[in-house]
Give the backbone structure.
Amino acid sequence: MEKKPPSSPQNQFANKAHAWSARFSEPVSDLVKRYTASVGFDQRMAGVDIQGSLAHADMLASIGVISAQDKADIDKGMEQILEEIATGQFTWLLDLEDVHLNIEKRLVELIGDAGKRLHTGRSRNDQVATDIRLWLRIEIDTITDLLRRLRRALAQLALEHTDTIMPGFTHLQVAQPVTFGHHLLAYAEMFARDTERLADCRKRVNRLPLGAAALAGTSYPIDRERVAKTLGFDGVCRNSLDAVSDRDFAIEFCAAAALIMTHISRFSEELVLWMNPRVAFIDLADRFCTGSSIMPQKKNPDVPELARGKTARVNGHLVALLTLMKGQPLAYNKDNQEDKEGLFDSADTVRDTLTIFADMIGGIKVKAEAMRAAALQGFATATDLADYLVKKGVPFRDAHETVARAVRTCEEKGCDLAELKLEELQAFHPGIERDVFAVLTLEGSVAARKHIGGTAPERVRLEARRILDETDLG
Ligand code: ARG
């Protein structure tokens, strides 16, 4: 990384260790250089940095601040730099601090004076703010598509399991029967809201800071609308001080990312539980699990566990960015260089996690018999019996009490409500008739909940199909 560039005497900028070094009489120590540099992590923004520079150069040429020839040279030089970066031939120098100065210096090496004119009417402060937004916009679009795929995978599996009955839990105690498809689609809803959040965040990401220069704007007659249009921004930031300094758009993204991971983490918790041999509701494909180096019988659900664990770091990045911002006076402060690693890591973690999960869900083996057996334990249809009595005219609180007594008897006898004889049930309430067994079965219980948002197979089928339509790219 530390190779010295070839020097040419007519090229002053390229020979300096710093772009601003005429002002400085002693070099920084190696440690401080390392401490203050960002090139180690911000070089991944090289593509968008060049994209921003090309748009800026185009605008400078359009208002006559640089010549058409300068612009043509810049275009050509940048093309070569992109090629050098893509092929790994570009030499990144710690001395040049960040991605912006590294690229600018190389441009000057390649094309001379035209390269030196590029930074007219611009500062690294509005440059970096622009780069982050361009970079984040791509990430948001990628993650949005991954959420779509994940929702599709959930809906596909749900459609296969509209009739598979499992116990629904509250307090992790058996509560009422639900269909497995319905349970899966709960996550599809969470990821739908995550998608909306990203779309909303994108609106505020997609505004152009360039033109703010260091903090106060620039004295050149710049055409910011033109740059915005070239770069595909919806508009320009309306205040230069705000444009270079606030990172609220990145914080919003980190909040959206933290919620995505939080949803993933809840799901992971369930997958781990369902993989427990005592529960055994599902089996995950081997490629998402590992064994133990000492216990030969083990198959550990590593991927969901790690996803649950990685949620911690993504949540952490949100808090870090909020904290980074809270003490900063206007306008740009170097603190903001600390915005990148957490932001990058949030996006990377979400991207990898969603990609893996969409694949993993496709490979879930559902053990419907175990689910059903579990639903039959724990008196999951007790509420249905109470509702049945209400329909026969019993006030709900009395019905609740009656069923509680029936459950207690079943507990003593070690049987389910549906296993009691009609006469035994009638002992609890004379209004009970033979039709009670239709509601005491798991199938009767779920089928009755067919309203929008309910767990009935027919409703889940409709919802799964709706989601498949919504997430179909055609
Ligand atoms: N590397 C810096 C960052 O990430 C670029 C902006 C530096 N601006 C400055 N005036 N030092 O924020």
Q: What stands out?
A: The two ends are 46 Å apart (CA to CA).
